[in-house]
Every structure is written in structure tokens, then in C-alpha cells.
Design brief:
The complex is a heterotrimer of chains A (about 260), B (about 775) and C (about 150).
Chain A: E1 2-8, H1 12-21, E2 26-28, E3 40-46, E4 55-57, E5 61-65, H2 70-75, H3 77-81, H4 86-92, H5 97-100, H6 105-110, H7 119-123, E6 127-131, E7 135-138, H8 139-144, E8 153-159, E9 163-170, E10 180-187, E11 190-196, E12 203-204, H9 206-214, H10 220-233, H11 244-262
Parallel strand pairs in A: 1-3, 2-3
Antiparallel strand pairs in A: 4-5, 5-8, 6-7, 6-8, 9-10, 10-11, 11-12
Helix pairs in contact in A: 9-10, 10-11
Chain B: H1 13-17, E1 33-39, E2 45-51, H2 53-57, E3 61-65, E4 96-97, E5 103-109, H3 112-121, E6 123-128, E7 165-173, H4 176-182, E8 185-193, E9 205-210, E10 216-220, H5 225-236, E11 243-246, H6 263-273, E12 277-280, H7 283-289, E13 296-304, E14 310-322, H8 328-337, E15 348-357, H9 371-389, H10 393-400, H11 409-413, H12 430-441, H13 443-446, E16 449-451, E17 456-466, E18 476-483, E19 489-493, H14 502-513, E20 521-525, H15 542-569, E21 577-578, E22 582-585, E23 588-591, H16 592-602, E24 609-615, E25 623-633, E26 639-649, H17 656-676, E27 706-710, H18 733-745, H19 756-769
Parallel strand pairs in B: 1-12, 10-11, 14-15, 19-20, 26-27
Antiparallel strand pairs in B: 1-5, 2-4, 2-6, 3-5, 7-15, 8-13, 9-10, 9-12, 13-14, 16-17, 17-25, 18-19, 18-24, 21-22, 22-23, 25-26
Helix pairs in contact in B: 5-6, 8-9, 9-18, 14-15, 17-18
Chain C: E1 2-7, E2 10-15, H1 22-28, E3 47-50, E4 53-56, E5 69-71, H2 77-90, H3 99-112, H4 118-125, H5 136-146
Parallel strand pairs in C: 1-5
Antiparallel strand pairs in C: 1-2, 3-4, 3-5
Classes of the chains: A alpha+beta (about 260), B alpha+beta (about 775), C alpha+beta (about 150).
Chain lengths: ~260, ~775, ~150
């Protein structure tokens, strides 16, 4: 990676304008993974001065500034109780503390990384992203959106819900990216099931969700069937970490375990 | 013993943790040119045309080197004693490149950015050749990886480049075929072991400068500084007397730093420009362009009688040395020589096979050095045989394994690249290791498996192992002890501390022999100008071989002190009593401090400085038994190493803490090889996992419980009864874990690593059979 | 560009390129305790404290340190001296290449959580790889240090 210029901006407007001034201008969030890319950045835009690293708890949501580090989010007391702490747990599995002290929640979302352990748990929660120009958009819509126009992510809003959730990341060692990750939430009688690192970008298992949400009672048979449906509907792939078949098998195993846990 | 067999802190640990500059790159000249290598993008290709003019024209570029700048003088990068048992099949730079990452050209420039930019300006026209990437197809393939006429072997090692053969060997005791016919049960099995990366935390690093006497001074992160000096001289045709090699602190080696890495190119830059130069490998270069463990295919046949007597072992190995033949023969031979004698009661044993070239990164020395591959195959096969026989695998081992005062004919037949040396096991507590390990793991309660809730099953498995202590009739080490005024000593050793703690261990041996304390021994190691010769830190040799040299020199020094004391006190030598502090004869006495001040300042003035050497004539093996308890998730195949028990006979552990560190460090690297690590390539021979994000060495999260103990054992020929301990720890985990997984879930993994994916596939296949 | 940063309590002005990473800047400025191991945020030998928190200096742009505080092991000599006694007692240092970064992580852990569980210690230090020791001796040494045994 090469950076030709560096600008610490004083306002979101300045950041937005600078970002759109040149195709090769880019926001540097934490910058933890930037080194791995071979991109040339004309002007790196630093948002450090904009106090976007605050986490604010409102009556019905947590508003996380885009520049909050993963470690900040992980350690935030209020979030530890939301969806029985699934986000904190998921973040704690990402690399080591030194990386989580640098990587930001905004950078982790905006990159739409297919290996992400941030997106998978967030997807089963009720999450909105707030952009400077585009305004609010749900995380789900953002992930499938083809809109490539550049904007500044300002905050990530997680709505408070009375809900339970489960997250599991299958990894080879403590520093590994996910081979597959699974997140499940249950709010009242509604389940959400998301599977990431398949190895492609996280997705809902919509048919499995429909099946389990229609069931009168979530029995062991329903759980097994739900996992089977998810295994069938989701596309898995092979890379050096694991084969398609193995990914499917472990995703199904963890969907079963997750469902059992959230109905407890 | 007062100093030996205690857990003393290492002499360098504190300063290193406090961040004192001590490693090679910390000591580079700040004005060093930055040396970068253009690495081959092709697995096999010939340079048709290379144009460096644009690179040379770039401001800040000092020199660009290509194959045209070097005489065609083949050498080996193996870093072994001379003459090496590795083929001379490498040129500093060559018109041919033989793997992706091979050296193509080299740039030295004022800074990193300029050097990188210059690499991009080198224009090459390639003749891209078809590579051999599957080692099972290499032998007698019509593609020849080394067609060049200049390459040769120093002595017969089975080298036959026309067949893509780097080395070959065979030996037989008795007649295996006949023995197998007589056996009640014969087990045949094939195993594969993978390439493993050393992954030392400090990348390969070297810097060079011309000193005020116009001599070439190299600081290099190496395990074999004296061999480096010789090879630089040989391959660059530069007088050895004008080379000084200094080994600073080294950030881990594990065999990887026994080899030549950047020394030849950096030396060339400095010799040609007169300017200081340095090279620090990127992690990608360490992975792709240094060395790795030899992948092997091992075909094993075991024959036994119904009563559990092992009669015959047949072992055929195909080993993949990659693009060049460093350690090709010796690693392959150790796969037999340091495994097969474990079962010394057989009627017959055959060991044979080939080491072939492929267009992958070169394989080389790596802790375990063949023994870990051989151990995985034999110790897995023993368990498989026991199942067929219906006998307990531990009882079977106890009945058939090597015991104290016994020997194996293999010792005399197989050495490292040469004939071996007959020896009896004057120290061997393998029996104790096996029984104590069972107690520590609570084997009898756990064998073969315990089912837990939630689809988790725990299983236990074990393996036994042996290694060596240096290479007899080859390894030589020497040590100099110097007495200073005030009565403290310098210990100068050629031995190479690469983090294993040899400076500390050797100082302990000296302190014990001189009856003094560790703080009175100031150790300085591995400087080719200042310290005496030592072959280097490899082949589990330092404690035993270098330690013996230190012991001899220190005992000589003690005698010299007594002699001087007698002179000072005016008594006979026999009348002196000396406890390391005071020399007494009747009512006369003089302290060492007073004596040394006398020697340097007042009377009978002279320097006491004594050098002695040790040349090994045997290689007493350390032994161990390793026990693994694993937990397998039957729905996902995921595996957790719950505990690993090691009971080790290394003779006297000179430093209990450091010896334990050697064992546990070896165990975890062995666990890495068993479960997590594998060098992967694309179909075109490109490395897939050339970084720590994708190549998974164990992190602390994977390590749950290591239990390590030492057997009471004393090796007469070793310093204070010591044998080696550097490699033995790495050997057992692959087989012990494979056996534990089998005992847990009935899945026999014969191809390393033992991944969750393979385990689950086995579980599903077993289910389908039912 | 120029960056004003406090290193080990001293105000420094570094002349850097916008794309420079903190690891390279620090080594260039002779803070040689900060080691280079992997170039991609995995091994942890380049760990420094950034406003008291451990980060990998190979993955932080030096430009981002403007107005902040960076601590290398040269800045926590007393703590490293003490921790090294515990490492020495367990034979937990071996090659020493990872230990300055380890000392910084342990120091930060102690500041953040004075009574961590075994799991919390492992979790906090996962990003500090070691290839020599097998980790257990380090773990014991660190626990003893934190418990002031």
C-alpha cells in the first residue's frame, strides 16, 4: 500500500468532500488491515479529530461512533448485556487485543469483509448504519446494496431488544479468521440465523428462518430440520481453509447448537 | 551439585526483555545499503534475457547483481561440516530459477523504497518451463530440475540429478522379507508428513561491513557461524582470513538458521561496493524463500507374533527436498536412524528410499530432522499393529523397546550421511518414562476413551521417541576459559546460543567445574575471530558436545589455578585443597581473588587462559514418552489438546527451567505439526499461506496443560551426566495425537496434519459403514 | 510531514512520509526494542502502548500518533526488570525476541485488570506469539508477576 498525502479533517463535510474529490482518496479508519492491500491512496483521510469514537447509550439504542475501536465496543458494559453479550463475545475472538485496540467498528463494517466476525453477530441484531449524506440504512440493506458511492459512516446504531443470541466462530487457532461463523438471535418467537465466512459474505438463512419461525414449537426435530434447510439453501465454497462440504457440516452443527441455546 | 541441575535464570533474558539492542538488525550500520532480492514468479524457468539498466539508472541504486556477476561455483547452503553430505547444487545466482521465490537478481540501494522500486525496473525475458510439483512423480520424470553439468556430490550420497535424485540410501539387517513371512500378523500402512515452517519470530537477517583492516565483518542471525565463514569464503572465492562472522542474539532458529540465507548476496554487495549493507527477510520471504521441513511418504510394514513380539520392520521413504538438496540425505536417514533403534529386538529391519527434487521451496534442517516424520509413521503403525494383534499398545512397547545397556545394530550402520557408530545405551530410562507418563496422565482411567456430554469424546494416545546428542566423529566443539584479575572468568565458546539458552547452560557447566557461581562466568559466544571453533547449534549437540569441551577446559583451568596456588604458597600441588574460592595447604592459604591479582600484577605474572576441545565418539540418545489427551467434537471434528505429558530422559538436565523450556517448546511445535501447520501451494507452485494470518502456529489459546518431568538419569560420557534435550520434545506429538484421536473416535489419520476436517470425514465415513 | 508525539514521556517530532508505519519510524529513530517480525499484524513482537493500550506498531500509521503517547519497553524499564525475574525463574524467555512486546502487553493488562483469570491472561496475550517456549512457562511467570508472588 502507498499513501501519498494525509489529511486530518475538521468536519464531516470536509471529510465527505475530500473523499469524493478524488477516486483514490480514502478514509483511514484503524488502518489495521490496510497494509495488506496493494492500493494507492492519494489522500488518506483521518477522522480522529471528530470524536466519532464515542459510544452513547440512549433510551432505546446504543449509538456507536464509527471510529470506536473493536476493543471499546467489546468492553462497553451496556453492550455486554444486549442479546446476552453476543457482540462482545464475537469481538473477543478477533485476533488479539492489540489489533482490537486499533481496528474500528466502522472500518470493519464498511469493508464488507467476507471473513468478518463483526458483521455476522450484528446482522442478527437490529442494526442501522448512519451515513453523513445517505442517512440511515439498515445493516441488512447495506450488505446487499450495490451502491458504490462514497460516503462517511458516522455511527452504528444497535437497537435495544429483549432478545437472546448465540455466536460461534469456528477457527483453527486463536489468531485465525473464521472458517465459518454462525449467529442466531431469538426475539419473542422470531429467530434470525446468519452464517458468515462461507467463505463469502455473511447471509441470512432465510428459508431456515421461515421454517423455524413458522413452527408452533421449536422441538429437537424442528432444530434438526432447520439446520438441514440452512445447509441446503446457503452456498458454501472451498478455499485453503476448508472445503465446501466441511463448511456446510460445521455450519449445520453450530446452527443446531445455537438454536438449542437460544430457546433455553 | 550447586549450579548444575538448578533452574537458574538465563544470562541474557533480562537484558533482552528490557529491550537492549542485541539482535542482528539492532547492530546494523545505520548507513547500510538496503539489499532486496527479486524473487522468481515462476516455479521453473530460465532467464533468456535480463536487463538491469533501468534499475541501475535509478537514483539511489548502488548495485544490481544478476547471475552474470558470479562465477559458476556450486555450493550447498546446508551449513554443515565440511565436506558436506549435501549436494553442491546451488549457485549464488543462477540463470535458472527452480521455485517460486527463488533468487533471480539482487539490488542494493540507499533505502528500502528505492530498492523496491529498482526491483520493479529489472526486465526479464523468461523461458517458462514445466515444473514438477508432485513429489511422487519426480523420480525419473522427463523434466529435469538440475540439468546443469557443474553440480556434484562431495562423496557418495546417492546423488543422481539425471533422475531428479538428490540422495538415496538403503540398508538391511537380517532379511525382512523372510522375517515377515514367519510373522503371525503383518501390518502395512502408508503415511504422509507435510512441509512445516520454522516460523522463528526473528526473520533471517544479516548485515555486512568492511572494517578498518579492510576485512569483511558479517553480523548474521545464524546457528552455524563458523560454517557461514567457510561457505562465504568458498562460494565467493574470498579469503577466509579476511572474514569475521559475529552471531549476535538470535531470535529463534529451530534448524532454519543453520542454512545460508542472505549472507552471500549481502557479502557480495559489501565486497563490491565497500559499503555496509543489510538484508532483513520479509515474513513472506521467510516462508517462501528460506527452508522448511521435508515432506515425506513413508511406507511401513511391521511383522509380529501373536505373543506381541515385534519381529520385522520394513520402512521405505520418499522424501521431497524441493528445489535444492540441503540436508536431503541426512534428514532422510535420521527418519530411520533415530526411530528404528527404539525397537531393537527385531530379527530384521530394512530402511531404504529416495530423496527427490521438486520445484517447491527447499527443504532443510528443522528440529526433529527426520525423526519426527519417522516417529509419526512408526509409532502410529505400532498402535495399528497392536489393534490387529489384540494387545495393549503400552505393554507391546514395553516388551519390544530399547532398554538400558542394550544396543541396536543400526547405530553401527547408519550415521548422518556416513556409517554410524556402535554404542550401548549406558543411560536409558525409557521404561520409567513410559510408566511415569501413564501415572501423570491417569492413563488407566482414561484409556482408550471417555465420552462427555454434547458430542464430545476424550481419548488418550502415546508414543515413545529417541534422538541423538551431536554427530559422532563429525561434530567438534571447543571452549576457552580465561581467568581475570579479581578472580572471575571469561568463557569463550564457538557454540551458538540461538535462544535455547546455551550460553547459560555452558556457563553453568563451567561454574560447576570451577566451583564458582554463575555471575563469575562471563560468557561470550560465536565470533569467528575471538571464540574457538564449534560446528554450531544443530543436531542436538550443544549441551553434550560443546558442554564437554567447556567441562574439559574448566577442569584444566582448575588444575592450572591449583598449580599457580601451589607456587604462590610454596607447597606441592598435591597438598592444595581448593574449593573454588580459597586455596589451602595446611595453615597457608590464598584466595582465588588474591591469587589472580598476584598473577596479573605482582609475581609469577602470566595470563591463565586454557582452551580444550571435545570430539564426540558417540551420540547417546535422549529418550522420552509422550502422552496426549485430546477432546474431539464428533459433530465438527474439532480437536482440543487437553493435556500433553512428557517424561524425558536427557541425562542430567543442566538447567531445569531451560531443559523444560526445550521440551515444552518442542512439544508445542510438534503439536503445531500434528494439528495446525501445513505449508500449502497452489497448483502452479505458489505459496498460499506465506504469513501468520494463514499459516497457523499454535497460539497460547491452544495450549491447555503441559506436564513435563525428567527421569533420573546419568550419562557417563556427558558433562555432569547430561545428554541433549533440544529436539527430543518435538518428536512424539504427531503419533501420540494421532493415536489419541483414533482411541477417541476410531478415525486413523495417516496424513498430517490431523485437521478437524479430516477427523469429521473419518467419523462420517465410519457412520456410513455402520 | 511532521508528527508531534510523546514517546516514553518525551516530546518528539518525527519527520515521516504519510504511509509510514509506527514500527518503521520507531526503529529508524533508534527505539530498537521494538522488533520486526511479520509485517502484517499477527506476531506481536512490535507491540507498543498507544495512550497506554497495547497495539501492533506495524499496523498503525505513524501519522495517527499525532498528539498521542507511545510507550516502548524503554519507557517501562522498572516493570520489565521485575517481570524478567519471573520469566527467568520459569525459563520463559528463551530467544527473547518476543519479550519486550510481551512486557508491554503484560503491563497494560495489569493496568486494565489487576486480577485476571487464566483465560483472561491468555485472551489478552493471544496476539503475542512465541515459537520457543510452548507458552506455559510464560503463563506461569506472568501469573506469578501479576500476583506478586
Amino acid at each position: 500500500m502507498k499513501i501519498n498525502g494525509y489529511q486530518t479533517v475538521k468536519s464531516l463535510e470536509e471529510a465527505y468532500n475530500l473523499l469524493n474529490e478524488n477516486k483514490q482518496n480514502a478514509i483511514v479508519a484503524g488502518g489495521a488491515w490496510m497494509r495488506l492491500s496493494s492500493k494507492v491512496i492519494e489522500t488518506a483521510i483521518d477522522l480522529s479529530g471528530l470524536e466519532l469514537d464515542q459510544i452513547v447509550e440512549t433510551k432505546d439504542a446504543f449509538e456507536i461512533g464509527a471510529m470506536a475501536t473493536l476493543r471499546q465496543v467489546e468492553k462497553q458494559e451496556g453492550l455486554k448485556n444486549l442479546y446476552n453479550g453476543v457482540l462482545s463475545k464475537a469481538l473477543s475472538k478477533i485476533m488479539g487485543v492489540p489489533i482490537r485496540n486499533v481496528a474500528t467498528i466502522g472500518g470493519s463494517i464498511i469493508g464488507k469483509y467476507s471473513f468478518s466476525d463483526v458483521l455476522t453477530p450484528l446482522l442478527v441484531m437490529n442494526v442501522e448504519l448512519e451515513f453523513y449524506k445517505k442517512g440511515k440504512i439498515s445493516l441488512e440493506d447495506f450488505l446487499v446494496s450495490k451502491d458504490r458511492s462514497k460516503d462517511v459512516l458516522v455511527k452504528v446504531i444497535i437497537k435495544k431488544e429483549e432478545a437472546k443470541a448465540y455466536f460461534h466462530k469456528m477457527q483453527k487457532t486463536g489468531l485465525d479468521f473464521a472458517v465459518v461463523n454462525v449467529a442466531i438471535s431469538k426475539k419473542a418467537d422470531t429467530f434470525k440465523i446468519a452464517v458468515g465466512a462461507r467463505p463469502s459474505l455473511v447471509k441470512f438463512a432465510l428459508e431456515a428462518m421461515a421454517f423455524v419461525n413458522d413452527a408452533k414449537e421449536v422441538t429437537e426435530e424442528v432444530i434438526l430440520e432447520t439446520a438441514l434447510i440452512a445447509g441446503k439453501e446457503l452456498k458454501f465454497g472451498t478455499n485453503s481453509k476448508a472445503s465446501e462440504e466441511y463448511r456446510r457440516n460445521i455450519a449445520m452443527a453450530y446452527i443446531k447448537r445455537g438454536l438449542r441455546e437460544v430457546i433455553k | 551439585m550447586k549450579v548444575v541441575k538448578h533452574a537458574l535464570p538465563s544470562v541474557d533474558g533480562k537484558g533482552l526483555m528490557m529491550g537492549r539492542p542485541a539482535y542482528t538488525d539492532d547492530l546494523a550500520d545505520p548507513n547500510s545499503l538496503i539489499v532486496k532480492v527479486l524473487r522468481s514468479p515462476h516455479a521453473y524457468a530460465k532467464i533468456v534475457k535480463i536487463d538491469t539498466s533501468k534499475a541501475e539508472a535509478l537514483e539511489g541504486v548502488e548495485i544490481v547483481l544478476t547471475y552474470k556477476d558470479f562465477d559458476r561455483r556450486p555450493h550447498t547452503r546446508a551449513g554443515q561440516g565440511f565436506p558436506e553430505p549435501s549436494p553442491y547444487d546451488k549457485f549464488v545466482l543462477d540463470q535458472w530459477v527452480r521455485y517460486i521465490g527463488d533468487e533471480t537478481a539482487c539490488v542494493a540501494a540507499v533505502d528500502e523504497e528505492t530498492a523496491q522500486a529498482a526491483l520493479k525496473l529489472i526486465e526479464i525475458e523468461w523461458d517458462i518451463l514445466e515444473p514438477i510439483l508432485d513429489f511422487e512423480t519426480a523420480l525419473d520424470n522427463e523434466i529435469l530440475i538440475h540439468p546443469e553439468p557443474e553440480i556434484f556430490e562431495n562423496f557418495p550420497i546417492g546423488f543422481d540429478p539425471k533422475r531428479n535424485l538428490a540422495a538415496a540410501y538403503s540398508m538391511e539387517v537380517g532379511n525382512v522379507e523372510d522375517s515377515l513371512k514367519e510373522c503371525d500378523v503383518v501390518l502395512e500402512a502408508q503415511f504422509f508428513t507435510q512441509a512445516q515452517a520454522h516460523a522463528a519470530m526473528e526473520p533471517h537477517t544479516v548485515n555486512a561491513r568492511m572494517d578498518y583492516q579492510n576485512r569483511l565483518v558479517l553480523y548474521t542471525s545464524t546457528q552455524a557461524p563458523f560454517h557461514i565463514r567457510r561457505i562465504v569464503s568458498q562460494s565467493l572465492d574470498f579469503p577466509m582470513s579476511r572474514i569475521r562472522v559475529i552471531k549476535p542474539r538470535v531470535g529463534g532458529g529451530f534448524g532454519g538458521k543453520q542454512h545460508i540465507h542472505g549472507e552471500l548476496l549481502v557479502s557480495t554487495v559489501t565486497i563490491k561496493t565497500g559499503k555496509p549493507a543489510k538484508m532483513v527477510y520479509t515474513r513472506k520471504e521467510v516462508f517462501e524463500s528460506s527452508f522448511q521441513r521435508h515432506p515425506m511418504r513413508l511406507d511401513i510394514k511391521l511383522g509380529a507374533m501373536k505373543d506381541g513380539t515385534l519381529k520385522a520392520i520394513n520402512c521405505h521413504i520418499l522424501s521431497d527436498t524441493g528445489a535444492y538438496g540441503e540436508h536431503a540425505l541426512t534428514v532422510f536417514m535420521v527418519a530411520g536412524a533415530k526411530v528404528l533403534p527404539l525397537y531393537n529386538k527385531v530379527d530384521s529391519v530394512k530402511f531404504y528410499g529416495d530423496v527427490v527434487y521438486t520445484n517447491h521451496t527447499s527443504a532443510g534442517a528443522y528440529r526433529g530432522y527426520g525423526a519426527i516424520q519417522g516417529n509419526f509413521a512408526i509409532e502410529s503403525a505400532i498402535d495399528m499393529l497392536c489393534e490387529k494383534l489384540g494387545v495393549d499398545p503400552i505393554e507391546f512397547r514395553e516388551k519390544n523397546m530399547m532398554l538400558k545397556d542394550e544396543t541396536s545394530p543400526i547405530f553401527a550402520i547408519m550415521g548422518e550421511g556416513t556409517e554410524g557408530t556402535a554404542m550401548n545405551m549406558e543411560s536409558c530410562e525409557l521404561g520409567y518414562c513410559v510408566s511415569r507418563g501413564q501415572e501423570l496422565l491417569k492413563w488407566k482411567e482414561k484409556y482408550p476413551r471417555v465420552e462427555l456430554a454434547d458430542s464430545k469424546v476424550r481419548g488418550v494416545g502415546m508414543a515413545i521417541a529417541m534422538q541423538g546428542s551431536g554427530i559422532p566423529y563429525i561434530d567438534m566443539a571447543s571452549a576457552t576459559v580465561k581467568l581475570n584479575d579479581d578472580g572471575f572468568y571469561n568463557l569463550l565458546v564457538g557454540a551458538t546460543d540461538i535462544g535455547q539458552g546455551s550460553d547459560t547452560v555452558l556457563a553453568q557447566i563451567a561454574a560447576e567445574a570451577l566451583e564458582t557461581t554463575l555471575d563469575k562466568i562471563i560468557v561470550y559466544s560465536s565470533d569467528s575471530d575471538l571464540t574457538p571453533f564449534d560446528t554450531g547449534a544443530y543436531a542436538s549437540s550443544t549441551t553434550y558436545v560443546s558442554g564437554n569441551a567447556v567441562f574439559k577446559a574448566a577442569m584444566d583451568m582448575k588444575r592450572a589455578i591449583v598449580k599457580e596456588g601451589a607456587l604462590a604458597l610454596g607447597v606441592k600441588v598435591e597438598d592444595i585443597e581448593y574449593d573454588g574460592v580459597v586455596l589451602k595447604a595446611g595453615d597457608k592459604e590464598i584466595t582465588l581473588k588474591a591469587l589472580s591479582n598476584r598473577l596479573y600484577y605482582s609475581e609469577d605474572q602470566k595470563q591463565l587462559m586454557i582452551t580444550n576441545s571435545y570430539f564426540g565418539t558417540k551420540s547417546p540418545p535422549p529418550f522420552m514418552a509422550g502422552f496426549a489427551e485430546v477432546e474431539v467434537d464428533t459433530e465438527t471434528g474439532e480437536i482440543k489438546i487437553v493435556e500433553y505429558v512428557s517424561v524425558v530422559d536427557c541425562g542430567t538436565p543442566i538447567n531445569l527451567a531451560l531443559a523444560k523450556g526445550q521440551v515444552e517448546g518442542g512439544i508445542v511445535q510438534g503439536i503445531g505439526m500434528a494439528v495446525y501447520e501445513e505449508v500449502l501451494y497452489t497448483k502452479t507452485g505458489k505459496s498460499i499461506n506465506n504469513n501468520f494470518l494463514n499459516y497457523h502456529i499454535p497460539t497460547r489459546k491452544e495450549i491447555n496443560k503441559l506436564t513435563t518431568e525428567f527421569a533420573e538419569s546419568y550419562e557417563e560420557s556427558g558433562p555432569f551426566g547430561a545428554k541433549s534435550v533440544g529436539e527430543i520434545g518435538i518428536d512424539t506429538p504427531p503419533a501420540a495425537i494421532a493415536n489419541a484421536v483414533y482411541n477417541a473416535v476410531g478415525v486413523r489419520i495417516q496424513t498430517l496434519p490431523i485437521t478437524p476436517e479430516k477427523i469429521l470425514a473419518g467419523i462420517l465415513a465410519n457412520k456410513a459403514k455402520k | 510531514m511532521k508528527v508531534n508525539v510523546k514517546v516514553n514521556g518525551q516530546n518528539k517530532v518525527f519527520n515521516i512520509e504519510p504511509g509510514d508505519y509506527l514500527l518503521d519510524t520507531l526503529r529508524k529513530e533508534n527505539y530498537l526494542s521494538v522488533k520486526k517480525g511479520c509485517d502484517n499484524s499477527s506476531c506481536g513482537v512490535c507491540t507498543v502502548l498507544f495512550d497506554g493500550k497495547p497495539i501492533k506498531s506495524c499496523s498503525l500509521l505513524t501519522a495517527k500518533t499525532e498528539g498521542h503517547e507511545v510507550t516502548t519497553v524503554e519507557g517501562i524499564q522498572k516493570e520489565a526488570d521485575k517481570l524478567s525475574d519471573y520469566f527467568g525463574a520459569e525459563g520463559a524467555d528463551q530467544c527473547g525476541y518476543c519479550t519486550p512486546g510481551m512486557a508491554l502487553s503484560v503491563h497494560a493488562l495489569k493496568e486494565e485488570n489487576s486480577n485476571p483469570s487464566d483465560e483472561e491472561i491468555k485472551e489478552y496475550l493471544t496476539g503475542n506469539l512465541c515459537r520457543c517456549t510452548g507458552y506455559q512457562s510464560q503463563h506461569i511467570a506472568i501469573r506469578n508477576y501479576l500476583e506478586d508472588k
